[in-house]
């Protein structure tokens, strides 16, 4: 009877509540390229004995800690995973100088000893990011625009990983979708991406509050990068523009008047001479 009770207890423990428990599992979401990072798989054995802790990236084992074996720690070659053996233990794995290839799905698997052989498995995605080194570039912009002009400009991000998200603002309001031209990102040999977002619209008077139209492009990546490129384009007040156009016609008209007068005078002189 007592034996049976013990078995029931073991089974209960084995099934759930008291056995092996994850205390802290941490795989950073984003790591800037070139930095080191720490993966944590901190567990409570709750009275059980540890058999092994294994780490996998995309299904391939790269680190193992087995207390009862010699050596206790083993590192396996997996592309993009540089384990710092010295700094890694059963609960913490340190990766040195992460590369773009370090990105992937990381899994920690904890296995308890016989007889229960309980396991704990947790996984998470890690993404190595390359923060763009420069501001986005605005191309194709003219110095001045008037109501009625067509605005056709591009904003291009500096190379990054993942691709930056570009946003155009017209007078501090996000540009409507129908003004945008989306182009496919360009990927270089290192795997870094460059994106371009075009802005294409017919400028109207409404785009020039207080006679100024301001166009701004921002590039952002996750939480890391949020730099802003701003271009403020000024234009004449419509009334002024009309006035200057009148001046333009006047100045075109005046010389013609003068020259026709001159021609008339010349003709008069010729006629006078002929007499
Ligand atoms: C904007 O970029 C696209 C794609 O690179 C290009 O085809 C287009 O000519 C560019 N337009 C301007 C105004 O620079
Ligand atoms: C970027 O920064 C601007 C101003 O500093 C802020 O208004 C905006 O919300 C930020 N965007 C993101 C995606 O963090």
TrEMBL record:
It is found in: Membrane. One of its GO terms (cellular component) is membrane. PROSITE patterns: IG_LIKE. It comes from the Eukaryota. It is a single-pass membrane protein. SUPFAM superfamilies: Immunoglobulin. The keyword S-adenosyl-L-methionine does not apply. Keywords: Disulfide bond, Membrane, Signal, Transmembrane, Transmembrane helix. Residues 34-110 form the Ig-like domain. Residues 1-19 form the signal peptide. This is Ig-like domain-containing protein.
């Amino acid at each position: 009877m007592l034996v049976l009770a013990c078995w029931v207890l073991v089974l209960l423990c084995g099934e759930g509540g008291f056995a092996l428990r994850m205390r802290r599992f941490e795989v950073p979401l984003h790591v800037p390229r070139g930095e080191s990072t720490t993966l944590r798989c901190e567990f409570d054995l709750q009275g059980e004995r540890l058999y092994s802790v294994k780490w996998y990236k995309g299904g391939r084992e790269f680190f193992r800690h087995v207390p009862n074996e010699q050596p206790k720690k083993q590192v396996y070659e997996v592309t993009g995973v540089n384990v710092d053996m010295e700094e890694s233990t059963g609960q913490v794995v340190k990766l040195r100088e992460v590369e773009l290839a370090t990105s992937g799905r990381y899994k920690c698997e904890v296995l308890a000893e016989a007889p229960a052989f309980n396991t704990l498995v947790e996984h998470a995605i890690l993404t190595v990011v390359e923060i763009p080194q420069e501001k986005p570039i605005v191309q194709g912009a003219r110095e001045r625009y008037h109501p009625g002009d067509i605005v056709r400009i591009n904003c291009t991000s500096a190379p990054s990983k993942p691709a930056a998200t570009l946003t155009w603002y017209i007078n501090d309001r996000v540009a409507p979708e129908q003004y945008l031209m989306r182009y496919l990102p360009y990927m270089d040999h290192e795997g870094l991406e460059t994106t371009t977002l075009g802005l294409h619209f017919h400028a109207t008077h409404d785009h020039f509050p207080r006679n100024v139209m301001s166009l701004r492009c921002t590039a952002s990546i996750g939480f890391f990068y949020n730099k802003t490129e701003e271009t403020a384009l000024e234009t004449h007040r419509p009334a002024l523009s009309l006035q200057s156009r009148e001046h333009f016609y006047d100045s075109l008209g005046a010389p013609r008047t003068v020259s026709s007068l001159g021609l008339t005078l010349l003709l008069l002189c010729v006629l006078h001479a002929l007499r």
